Amino acid sequence: MTPHHQADDVDEIGGVHIKYLLHCPRQLWLYSCGYRPEARNDAVAFGETVDDTTYRRHADVDLGAAKIDWVTRGAVVHETKSSRQPSPQHEAQVLHYCLLLARRGVNIRGGIVHYPLIRRTTNVTWDVSARRIAEDTEARARQVITADAPAPRLPRTQCRGCSYRDYCWGDS
Question: What are the chain's domains?
Answer without folding.
Answer: 10-169 (3.90.320.10)
